[in-house]
Amino acid sequence: MPVRSFEHIGLIVQDLEKVAAFFDLLGFERGETATVGGEWADRVNGLTGTEVEMVFLTAPDGSGAIELSRFISPSNTEAPASLPSNALGLRHLAYRVDGVEELVARLRAAGYDLVRELVNYEDVWLVGYVRGPEGLLIELGERLDA
Question: What is the pTM of this model?
Answer without folding.
Answer: 0.90
